[in-house]
């Protein structure tokens, strides 16, 4: 007997294949509820839909969107679109473009080797969480899509604990700017929750925690530039250790995360549009791991002792460096950044700015800076400069090491080492730096009052 297909049901090839894959792959996925009234704060994307295969069906994962209201000639990407979900094992993700067909999609980080399958307005990806992905396609340069496939949460707080302040999923919570967080409290922003405001963590001897897979935003609020407004940072603390995990921060009025004491940060996603909306900074012994940033100033501030940044995915916009060493007085010592993917560099290739090198010292310090290592970096779409150091305040800056740096699509401008007044710049070592498969040469570095003996370049690539 032959059954007639129901003409009202559209069964495209990707759905059939996804259902088959879902029955074979032992994976667990969790998507978050749509927040009520989110359109006033973070509307659903008008460009993309994302589905994850869950057993024998496709489940939609809500795609947020944010448009910049900071119009500048150098601004290249005017929208962000992103979705977050939890998964284990290899899974399939189906991406649907709401308007028009998909042309030439690319998935970054390129080293993951993820190749999309395409049919009309739909593509299919096989991914292995946890991962943080950028999806680009021809004609959609101002609409990048980000997919954050997280591992399942561990050590969730108890919502009935009186020391826990819980923000429920599926809702928008308006707490306002500089919401006071008592010392030692845990704030939990559930996946699918939006909190409008900033968290000002009060001083004290206890660790304060901000956790969850939800979103903290101040979208549509006026920016607050300059140093006096640093306390309006989205998550801010002075004399208190901070633990920050899982949260997404978007459209901040000042920095995304800044602490003056120890800041332990994992799996955060940071989006920002304005000048002076830096990504992350902490005091001595701070760390940030397994995180994503697309901010509009310095991504990571290595301003303290024994700081570590590892397993980061960075989308570098026009202003700011991936790693900044000081801004007029700080002193980074014994700091390490490793396993870094720079999936995009939107710095203006012709004009550029002087604070956008991979490792940068733009405003010098009068305190010693030493033993800074940046290693295992992949830049998929070019890099503005490899290193840029202006040492002009009398400091001794020494033992800066860049190791195993792979750059595709070129360096946009020469790097520079500039030593002025009574400052000292000593022991700069660049090892295994390749640009489109060829070793970095000394001609790529401009020296000003720096003896040549203080710069060493070595390379083991076969394409020297």
TrEMBL record:
Q: Which UniProt keywords apply?
A: Signal
Signal peptide stretch: 1-27
**KW Signal (keyword) present:** yes
- Is Transmembrane helix one of the keywords? no
Protein name, please?
Endo-polygalacturonase
Q: Species name for this entry?
A: Arundinibacter roseus
